[in-house]
Each structure stands twice: as structure tokens, then as C-alpha cells.
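Reagents: none. Just compute today. L-lactate utilization operon repressor.
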Amino acid sequence: MRNTRIEVVNITESINKYFIDCINSGEFKVGEKIPSENTLTQKLGVSRASLRVSIKQFVALGLMQSYQGKGTYLVSNNTCVFGNRGLVAKQDYKDIKDVLSFRLLIEPEAAMLCAKTADDRDKLIEALEQSYKKMEDNIQNAELFIEADMNFHIAIAYGSGNSVLGDAIAHIFASTMHRHKQINNLFGFKDGLSFHRIIIDAIKDGNAKKASSCMHDHLMHAILEINKLDN
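Predicted 3D structure written out:
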């Protein structure tokens, strides 16, 4: 097993990268049990809590399966669910960031308004949950996953009660479909699911500040990750 200790700030992302490297190299084999939590925490120098967060993400994406009292097994080696950056040309990064930056200007406000003043919150939450479920069910199908992702954001935009804002987001998605496919190639399926779950819960609880800040973090995270790739 590798001896690399993880010392970067974003612990979960670093554990994810370690797992991906182990899968791609064949160190972790499909059908076999991965090393125990004790072994991994000592080897990587991370907490048990951080390790479990990462394992849960791999389970959610269909790569691992945990069994009570037995440990965690690798059930798929399809690491493309974390993104396939080789499909996106570096010269496209600016256009992708432009789309995300535009969305960053208005979507946090839309999420805040949804949590604060949504006319029919129950109906909105139902629509968001349906989109989220469709995303979960289509982790291996980028086309359907992206469609559900877009519908999620459009529902929030219209749920704000401002039809102009809703029309703007619907238009930006319709006119930049290619860019959003590239975003999926860059980052895969994990980030959308994790951020969307928190956003739904914040809107459901009427927590406008949290809904806005999480939408901001969702989009800013993608922008910052592209900046890293572009350097």
C-alpha cells in the first residue's frame, strides 16, 4: 500500500484522490475489501470522520459498498464518475468560468428568496427532490444527470417568485448546454449531489442565509477548481 501521507487543507478531496489513484492503479480491485479504517487513518494521517465522509461519497457514486461488521468493498472501478478532465480543452476554461460567474451573480439570491418567500414551498421542495432523485439514479448517465441538474437550478430560479430571474437562468442553461456538459466532464457527479442536498434542506427549513451561502459555495467551488486547473 502507498506510504503517502495527506497534508493538504481539503482533507476529503485528498482522500478521494488517494482512493481514485488506488483504483486506477489496480491497488484496489473490484470485489475485494479495501483496507480497514484503522489502517487508512494511520497510513494517511487523517481522522476517522474525514475518512468516512469520503467513503460515503464513493458508496453514493456506486464505487464502493459498506457492510456492517465486514468492512467496505470496491464494487466498481469506473472513476469517471468523478470527472473526465481530458475531454475538456484548456482554452475552454474561460468560457466555462464566464457561465459560472454569471450564475454566481444571481443564483444565491434566488436560493435566498426561495427559502424566505416561496409561494408554494411544498410544491417547490417536491420538484427539487424529484430532480435530486433523478440525479442520484443517473450517476452513470451524464445526459440525464445534467438535465436533472439544470431542472434543479431552474426550479429554484422560478421558485424565487421573480419570473425574469427564472427566465434568465432557463435561457443561460438552454444557450450553454455544451458548457454544462464540460462542467460535468471536469467535476463528475459528486459535487452536484452533495451541494444540492444541503440547498434543499436549507430551503425546506426556511433558512435563507444558508440556502444563499451554499448556492454561492456550490458555484464558487467550481470556479476555484477551474482556476487551479488553469494555473
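The two ends are 31 Å apart (CA to CA).
Action item: order primers for follow-up constructs.
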